[in-house]
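Quick one - inputs below.
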Amino acid sequence: MTLTPTKRALLEQRLRGRSTRTIPALPQDAPPPLSFAQERFWFLEQLAPGNTAAVIPIVLRLLGDLDADRLAAAISAVVARHEPLRSRFVDGGDGRPRLRIDEAAPVPLPLLPLEALEAHLAEPFDLAAGGLLRPALIEVAQDDHLLAIAVHHIVTDGWSMDLFASEVAAHYRGGTPPELPVRYRDYAAWQRANTGFAASVAFWRDGLAGVEPLDLPTDHPRPARQTFTGAEHSFPLGLRDELSALSRDHGVTLHMTLLAAFQAVLGRLSGQTEFAVGSPVAGRQPPELERLIGMFVNTVAVRAPLSGDPTFAELLGRVKEGCLDAYAHQDLPFEQLVQELNLPRDVRRSPIFQALFALQNYDEYDGRDWGGLTLGHWPAPVSATRFELELYVKEAPGELWATVVYNTDLFSHDTAVRFAGHFRRFLAEVAADPQRRLSDVDLLEPDERAVVLPAPEPVELPETTVPALIEARMAAQPDAVALTFAGRHMTYGELDEHSARLAARIPRGALVAVSMDRSFELVVALLAVLRAGAAYVPLDPEYPAERLAFMREDCAALDLDAALAGGGSPLEGPEPGDIAYVIYTSGSTGRPKGVPNTHRGLLNRLDWMQRRFRIGPGDAVLQKTPAGFDVSVWEFFWPLMTGARLVLAEPGGHRDAEYLRDLIRAEQVTTLHFVPSMLAVFLATEDVAACTSLRTIVCSGEALPADLARRCVATLPAELHNLYGPTEAAIDVSAWRCDGDALAGRARVPIGAAVQNVALYVLDERLRPAPVGVPGQLYIAGVQLATGYLGRPALTAEKFRPDPYGPPGSRMYATGDAARRLPDGTIDFLGRLDTQVKLRGLRIELGEIETAIRARPGVEDAAVVVRDERLVAYVVGSDDDVRPALKRSLPDYMVPAAFVRLDALPLTPNGKLDRRALPAPTVTRSAAVAFAEPATDAERLVAGIWQELLGVEKVGADDDFFDLGGHSLVATQVVARLRKAGGGVSVLDVFQYKTVRELARLLSEPDRGPRRLLHELTRPVPPEQRLASIVAVPYGGGSAVVYQPLADALPAGWSLHAVAIPGQDIGVREEALPFDELAARLTAEVLERVEGPLVVYGHCGVGSSVAVELARRLEAAGRTVEAVYIGAVFPFARPTGRFSGLLAKLAGREALLSNRVYENWLRSMGVEMAEFDRDEADLIIRNMREHTRLAEEYFTGLFAEHRAVLKAPIVSVVGSQDTQTEFYRERYREWHFLTGTTALVVLDEAGHFFLKYRAGELSHIVTEVHGTDERLRDPDGGWEVAARSSTVEHADGPDGPDGPDGPEPSLGRFMAVAAGQLVSIVGSALTEFAIPLWIYLQTGSLVRFAVFAVLGLVPGMLVAPFAGAVVDRFDRRKVMLGGDLAAGASQAALLALALTGTLRVSHVYGLLVVLSVALTFQRLAFSSAVPQLVPKRYLGHANGMVQLSFGAGQFLVPLVAAGLMATVGLRGVLVLDVVSYVVAVGVTLAVRFPRTLAWARRETFWQEVVGGWRYALGAGSLRPVLVFFAVLNLFMTPLFLLLSPLVLSFADLGAVARVSMAGGLGAVAGGLLMSFWGGPRRHRVRGMLLVVLGLALSSALPGLRPSELLVAAGALGMSLGLTLANGVYTTIVQVKVPQRFHGRVFAVNTVIAFSTIPIGYAVVAPLGSRLLDPLLAPHGALAGSLGALIGTGPGRGTALLFLLLAAVMVAQVLVSLRLPSLARFDERVPDAAPDDLIGAQERQRRKEQAHG
Amino acid sequence: MDDYVVVRNDEEQYSIWPAGDPLPAGWHAEGVRGPRQECLDHIDRVWTDMRPAGSRGA
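Output:
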């Protein structure tokens, strides 16, 4: 045995007779330090407390008559001897551990049942608590015991436990072990003092350079952090003698032999040669340590010296050297080494090495005298592992036992068992012949061999060919549809005829080049070639000409035309061995290569497909793969062979997922193919789940990610199959069905098992089958093999190799793909072995691209890699024209997306390209477009802006904005940036001029002349194909691009010209044109540019007015307009009468409204305002308002003219949920003022802006409705013609008014009724206000005051839902009259009682209730009747007037009431009131109501409330805001009520009037402020909370002093705050709640008010005051303290209530500001989805329900 | 680099095989042995009709 230098040095030291003590004793009073290893264990424990990987389980089996007490005493004695076993490790408070050594004490030895063994050994330790050695005794039988010891590694190691056993045995038998020379603490201190590691550090740094982590093939995906759960597999290794001999012969230890074999097997399984394996060393060089128990063991990393495929004998030599070197430097603790090397930390793996090997040659069987007991064997259970794989070999007498401990998160038990087999077999083989090279050693056991070399599935193939089978089909079903393309069909009979005619002229055996886009002709041509017995060469017309020219020349194929010219020959058809097709594939040598495939192979492949998927005449198979890829081969011929229908996608259609979705649905496609990346795009497309016809989806072309497969299976009803196959075999050679269960827990979808008559092999470099799970190269053999590469003998010989496992003389194709065999025999695809890659399903030979780049003159070297799914080229040298040059010679998909210039390519030590050292590219644009450097200033400007906004690193002049990820939102930003830079383009321009170059050209044109108004959004339609044109005018604020969705949805033959109204298009600062000029210019443009039949569409106010005027002018110019469609609006006008006009203007407050109010409104209607910046939004809204005003003026003027002026019919298109077009069943007829014919189309569930989400349905409407008198309706129920009306014929609207019975609505009628109602309602309000005051003055009772206030309010609230239902059902006029009479009568009764002086408080109860209820009926009936009374075109204004009046009433009533009470008293008030009712009843009696539609609720109030709750609690997330208001109401409402009593406590009624007026002023000011302001733009809820804070602070003012001024100021502040808070809340609802739910949400608010106001009024106010008043009475409890501040006496308790409730509200606001649910509401709750999107989703849901 | 041999089967298809390894059944060494590229170059010269012998017909 060779001595290590250290040992030799030690030996020399001893021989020289110097001190034998290396380790000095630590002074007794010095604090004991931890050793390095202990420290590391402690830190590990802090990282993962309770980690059982550090718990060592020991089981000693003791046979014989055991004395448990004696055993316990023996254990205690040993623990007493060895300090580590009594140690604890506590946190020193500074994050570092401290060692505590406990006094010796008896160690408990519990007796446990056998079942508890495992749990006892696996239980973790608490290092701070101590007791780190935990023994237990288990009685298996009376004379058979297990001593089970769990001990933490921090206090022991393997050697120590051996010592432990022998010392326990010594004590047990009564012996005493010798005194210990040193203690562990001495060792730890010595180790820490000994810093002479520098040489060792240098050694290891050098020795471990370049070590890679061991990357074994795992069964499960590697967890994101290293885990420690383990299990073991033990097996007898045998071979003891053979291995001993082998070791002896080569001068190595058994340990080295086993380690070498372990490394060799790991190398084979991982394919690596640069990893290390850990190996423990005892760590007890100073001999005095040999008798100590403690943690001494160190682990050294032994590098696996496997490179160059040595023989095992050579390997042994290398391992010996490596081990001896390692031992010589073992003094450096492993934990120090990790720190010193400062390796990049990979938290998924242990550092430096991941596998461990130990030979355990200390043995519990040797030389132990247990005093009458004998030792048996009992394996210790393993549940943890510190490494991925640990191998322990134990030298038992006459036997070698091995245990594999493996991480169960990485490996399955089967894998561990297989590993054991490999290891044993490897040892057996090398023991027999150590001169064998490692790669020559066969690892496979016979049963595994059967798994990795399965025999092909034999299926007898008929002696026929695919074209022969298709001919049979064509003859059998001539009338069945064979092909469908763009809505046209070709039957089998026609296909037969066409293809036979062609085939007859094609020479047999010829190669025929076919270069056509997808079409009937293409299929006919391909089939004809096959039928003729010739072979086709598909040449994709999209390829660059250079490449196509190369292919033509390479294969020397005849062009189809040339072949046809060759004349005829009798049709013989092909033989099975003939070539069917030659498809070109990417080539590593820089040129593509043609691969001929035989008919036999093709037949086998299609026969397999038919057996597997079984399609027939009922099926439709989509053909979308370009003919140049072999997937197309089955797409073409399998359906034809089986009688199914072949559905051809349009050329280019295979890239358009939405097109595919529509095609699949339209043609009911059952079967189709996707490249996985396209499948992902497809699945992300809206509505794909509606492709319910799909039965089978076949994926191939690139690795199929498991989550994509899972998504596919979950989304679509079809089966998903993953296929694999290179062009060098007929299409596909393997398949795997993806079903949910099989996919579970997989990262990749396997490519499955071989198809019939095909064999797949996974072979290592020596062409031997790789073991299960081990990566190798995939080879293909069998009938589907291509014949080779056309005209490339060397390449063919290189890739098509003799098959050692197939029939004699057969070949196999080396795919160059890495794969591994799964335990079930299927195959897992791992990627490319060489530089060939697949990108988006296309196979690309990187070498081919590199060759092409290197061919450029200035280029010295080049490398191409795939990064982030893109090709990146690294170029050494200079050549600016690489990209254009590549574009000429390579197909687009092979032109790298990015070019990075380098001074030199980084290389690995072996001289290979170091791919990992290549820098990340700075480009992310698509590879599809060649990069052209922006050349002009304008191009650079545009490119720079795109680059920034789209997050693209580099933008080329020819890049398409939308290809780079642009969309309308970014388009507006582009426009804004360009404008800042001085360039004026519009969003529309960005849509129309899609590349940098085009857009820049636009910028560069100094004066583009007057901008055109019309923009054609459809692709130009040739005149002979044109059916009609639509001229579409956008809504106010809308750009012309809002019609893009409609344009896209229009059927063929229709064009759409959208109008860009100046000033409405983002990016172009244009003044709004005067209406007449706009109309004139537009008319001129239409006359000049739009020919043929013409339809005009206008949306909303602006759109409708311009559309109508355009139609009028066109007709005036002699042009026929087929129809005018008006979306989402009816004619609207402003009252023109002197008084009504003025009132309408006042009511409109138009001039006062801020743009923000409009913005909120637009947002609530689903217009995406967020995309505009502020200036932009203001500009747009300003112009929108101006245009809307002009539109109203226009219609107002038209109405004044009173004559039908259009020949064209007007068709109204409205959304059923649009509140702007209520009364549509009546209102559509208003268009009769312009035309004799009109119709109404209702879009179900649509809102106001349905242009985008309902474009498909709209396209049907605008192209179909005017062409017929029928009541068309969408088969899905999405829209219907609800009514038609003609002034000639009778209207046929089902719910329309029955002709002009009854009076016409008129403004006069409305104003008269309104005046009467308003006067009486104001009068009643006076009474309701005055009565409680009167009662308070009479009785001085706050309680009564409050009760009456409640009585005046609450009965009306309670009855409101019922009243609403009554109003909806009955004649409004009668309800109004009833209400008027009841209210008037109750007042009259009050008056009578008052006049006779008999009015008592008790009378008032009943009468006030009656009044409150009657008033509710009256008010609701009146509101509902307004639309009935007023011509509906004035409805907006009329409603404004009513609101204005109510608002004024609200402002005036308290003032007037208090004033009147002070002057004329209650009687006077009642007199006035009774008179007002006489007037109201008189007017209402006098006026007849028109029989037009009145306003009615869509849902009952309670339905609204329930729906609102559901919304607020569910998706709406409004809950926190609602709760806030509910709580606030409780505290706030009493204060409003108590203002008057508070004032009266120190002043008179006049003061009450003034204070009330201040409150009214506050409300008016709040309303005006909201108009100006429009509410906060961003943090709305926070803004609302701050407003409420102001309200709360104001609420404190009235309580401060008995001062009228203070109370008035408080009242003003409170009303102002409340109005503002309500206003802001309304904006919140507008922005966060889709428009159609607003009614519901506000209904919920009403209910909250319902429930809280009475409590506030009737409970909080009187109770609070009653409780507080005594406190502030002159001698009350608080009179001295608080009373000194706010005064004492009557009413001061009420004042205190103001202060208290104000404080509560302030607190509520402050708390709310801290609550994330409120404070972050605006960020947390997304803006409401566009109303029409909600509608479209609802439609979709219903459709699915109907179909499902 | 290890040597290869040029091999041929009964269909007169050519390929290469590691020199020294036993030839799979149905394949015959054609007599040329050398580095891989040399063998492939040889095949390029001699394999002029790449159709399988069985399907060359008349």
